[in-house]
TrEMBL record:
This is N-acetylneuraminate (7)9-O-acetyltransferase. GO terms for biological process: carbohydrate metabolic process. Signal peptide: none annotated. It comes from the Eukaryota. The keyword Glycoprotein applies. The chain crosses the membrane at residues 273-291, 355-375, 395-416, 423-440, 446-466, 473-495, 507-528, 561-579, 599-617, 659-680, 692-711, 731-750. Belongs to the PC-esterase family. CASD1 subfamily.
Length: 756
């Protein structure tokens, strides 16, 4: 840890991921689009001063602003560029040697009457080596000239961003005869002189000339692909230009996936209040714990010295009070949230970009599947989608999704389409599970609703406060929360139709089907009426929950992507429970679900459908077109999997306890990965141990899983206290919750005013 100046790392160190992806040491580079570059450089003047290598960098830089630019014009002269739409002016000034001419140009910018460029990129040396045939006298003169220029550059650095580009190595075998005197040994000597002289007189860290040395590292890996041994290939020049853009623009635009050169965000009012609350909880817990320990010592049995008998106190050791349990939970949560903040908001730990390879995704998948098979046990019950089986299903899906996220596999369309099915399967289970509960139990009480809402949302609400993120940022929780409320309202509205009532009269089944048809109609209407959907969720305070970047489009897109699958889950639960009631299914241990012939036919159809969907998903060419079909066809593979998993009696009678363990904390795993396994809000990877990728993944994964498990325990403990069963107490708690969220909205409005 060398401080929080990641710009120094960006300009001086890094490595290649694959052939073309450059990874700076400790931070993440953003890939700037033309519109972003124009927005950042609005009304700016940039000057590139130097030789042909600087000219190449100039062209790569202006292509980030306008990709249509052609490399034309006098190669040994000045080249102007202007983008009138954004008032951006970029000039290349031909000064191939560090001499009096270059000094005079730089000196003119230091004079008050002259407009200074906002960014100056300079560098030269190879011409001096070439013209003077690599003589030592030329190097001595170079040192004298750069010594005279250095104070001027440092003076400019007080008001402008000044970069001195060190000389890249050459590929000596490819150099022409006229350039053979340009050796890497000479280049190193010139670079050493430049680094030693620049900033030697500067004491102010803000008035420093930034040495652009990372280009040397890039060139060492790519110069052999050069066309002449001297000039870098185009991909390397583009990387250098992107680094320059990141150095200057990250602190202005603050892209999520560009952590280099970004300052640590200041604490918001809500964050300060949250940390104060956790601190007070910690102090309160220590005080209560000390009081209890003191009382316990006073009441501890002691021995009568006269007769040797033990005297028993009147009062035994006190039980843990509700207040102590609450404070204990908040203490643990406070420590965990501090770790979250340090990982993804403070510039304490490093972050790196993701880089996808097939092996980085498929090898871990095979590994965890083998592990899951080794932990096979018998189930307690053998019903279709029993608790152990659904936990197992959630578990292996969650592990696959985690590997998908950390490997950056979203760039590979076939994998993306299969992961979309896994997300849909989670929502299918939401529809199946909640419908089954309400249908069988008939419990539409407030206690049930509050329990579910608390367990789903507790962690996300805390993270919204501590990490200063909107609720919609953790999109999956709003999704399952809204679908739970839709299921509840659909079944709780008059007439309330439950299994007990429907068993007495078959017409009630028809009534329930009409309710489901009404729900399907509403879903269909909203999915094709973006305006109506956005109006519903744009009303305050709903807009505070579902807006992201100032609009609800992201929420509409996420909802629309899996709009039918919850309905499919409800319909499947209804059909399954109806068949179960009529004893059509054989759910005994080891028995096939249907008769042998029917089971074999259904199993064959299921495998065929499962593989057909995989073939279709793997042949997808366009993500947008495939996403349009996904809501209608994802249920095919989900139902196929359920039948394959449940028709054979033996397969239905066993489960993987390894996957089931992860399934019980799947929600916490999904949410926690955002900040303490991934980084920069899922755009990168958290680096706790730099330089050792495998060891880093092992350590960060261990901490991540332990934290997710602990948060699950804390949520369960707090749910028992915060959501009591007796209605009067529950009503008081709901009023307290309303007051809490009202205060949160108020503080949010207060802290948003300075931002606007």
């Amino acid at each position: 840890f060398k401080g929080d100046d990641t710009c120094e790392y960006l300009l001086s160190s890094g490595r290649f991921l694959g052939d073309k992806v450059w990874q700076p040491h400790s931070c993440m580079m953003h890939k700037y689009k033309n519109s972003e570059a124009k927005n950042c450089l609005l009304d700016k003047h940039i000057a590139f001063v130097g030789d042909s290598r600087i000219r190449q960098l100039f062209y790569s830089f202006i292509k980030l602003i306008n990709p249509q630019v052609k490399e034309e014009g006098n190669k040994h002269g000045n080249i102007p560029f202007e983008d009138k739409s954004a008032s951006i002016k970029v000039d290349f000034l031909w000064y191939p040697e560090v001499n009096g001419s270059m000094r005079q140009r730089i000196k003119s910018w230091t004079e008050a009457s002259t407009a200074k460029p906002h960014i100056i990129v300079a560098g030269a040396a190879t011409w001096s080596i070439k013209i003077h045939n690599g003589s030592n006298e030329a190097l001595t003169q170079y040192k004298i000239n750069i010594t005279s220029i250095a104070p001027l550059l440092e003076k400019l650095a007080k008001s402008s961003d000044v970069y001195w580009v060190l000389q890249d190595p050459v590929y000596e075998d490819m150099l022409s005869e006229s350039r053979k005197m340009i050796t890497n040994e000479k280049i190193d000597a010139y670079n050493e002189a430049a680094v030693r002289i620049l900033n030697s007189s500067s004491r102010n860290s803000k008035a420093k000339v930034k040495v652009f040395s990372v280009s040397k590292l890039i060139a060492q890996e790519t110069i052999m692909k050069s066309s002449d041994g001297l000039h870098l290939p185009e991909s390397s020049r583009e990387t250098n230009a992107m680094i320059l853009m990141n150095v200057y623009c990250n602190k202005i635009l603050k892209p999520i996936d560009g952590s280099c050169c970004q300052p640590q965000p200041p604490l918001t009012l809500i964050q300060k209040l949250a940390f104060s609350f956790f601190t007070l909880s910690f102090i309160g817990y220590i005080i209560i714990n000390l009081i209890h320990r003191n009382n316990y010592r006073k009441n501890k049995p002691c021995t009568d010295l006269e007769n040797g008998e033990e005297k028993k106190p009147a009062v035994g050791a006190p039980a843990v009070s509700t207040l102590e349990m609450l404070l204990h939970s908040f203490c643990k949560l406070g420590l965990i949230m501090t770790y979250f903040y340090l990982c993804d908001r403070a510039n304490l730990f490093m972050k790196e970009n993701k880089f996808y390879t097939h092996s980085s995704f498929f090898i871990p998948i095979i590994y965890i599947l083998v592990l899951g098979v080794f932990y096979t046990e018998n189930t307690k019950e053998t019903k279709v989608l029993n608790r152990e089986q659904t936990d197992e299903w959630k578990g292996w899906m969650q592990l696959v999704i985690l590997i998908y996220h950390i490997s950056g596999a979203s760039t590979f369309l076939p994998v993306y389409m299969h992961i979309r099915v896994l997300v849909a399967a989670y929502l299918f289970q939401t529809g199946y599970g909640h419908f089954s509960y309400f249908w069988i139990k008939g419990d539409f009480g407030v206690y049930r609703v509050c329990q579910v809402l608390f367990r789903l949302n507790f962690l996300v609400v805390v993270l919204c406060i501590v990490m200063d993120r909107p609720y919609q940022f953790y999109y999956f929780v709003p999704l399952v929360t809204v679908w739970f409320m839709i299921i509840y309202v659909t079944l709780a509205l008059w007439p309330q139709i439950v299994q007990k009532k429907a068993n007495g009269n078959c017409l009630w089944h028809l009534g329930l089907l009409l309710k489901l048809i009404g729900l399907l109609t509403c879903i269909f209407f909203l999915s094709y009426s973006q305006g109506a959907f956005e109006k519903i969720f744009s009303f305050w305070p709903l807009s505070k929950c579902f807006e992201l970047n100032g609009n609800v489009y992201e929420w509409w897109f996420r909802w629309k992507l899996d709009r039918y699958v919850v309905f499919h889950g409800m319909l499947f639960a209804f059909i399954y429970l109806a068949l179960q009631k009529r004893q059509v299914l054989s759910e005994g241990k080891g028995d096939p679900l249907f008769s042998s012939r029917v089971s074999n036919v259904l199993l064959f159809i299921s495998i065929a459908c499962f593989l057909t969907y995989s073939v279709w998903a793997s042949s997808c060419k366009n993500k947008t077109d495939c996403n349009e079909l996904h809501p209608s066809v994802s249920v095919v593979q989900i139902l196929a999997f359920i039948l394959i998993r449940n028709i054979p009696g033996y397969v239905r009678s066993v489960y993987s306890s390894f996957f089931a363990w992860f399934g019980k904390i799947s929600l916490e795993l999904f949410i926690c990965q955002y900040h303490i396994w991934l980084a920069a809000d899922t755009k990168g990877i958290l680096v706790l141990i730099p330089g050792y990728p495998m060891l880093n993944i092992m350590v960060s994964t261990f901490i991540f899983v332990c934290v997710a498990h602990e948060i699950s325990q804390i949520t369960n403990d707090l749910a028992q206290v915060v959501v009591p069963k007796d209605n009067p107490t529950l009503l008081r708690r709901l009023l307290c919750a309303a007051a809490f969220f009202s205060a949160l909205l108020l503080f949010s409005a207060i802290q948003d005013q300075p931002r606007h």
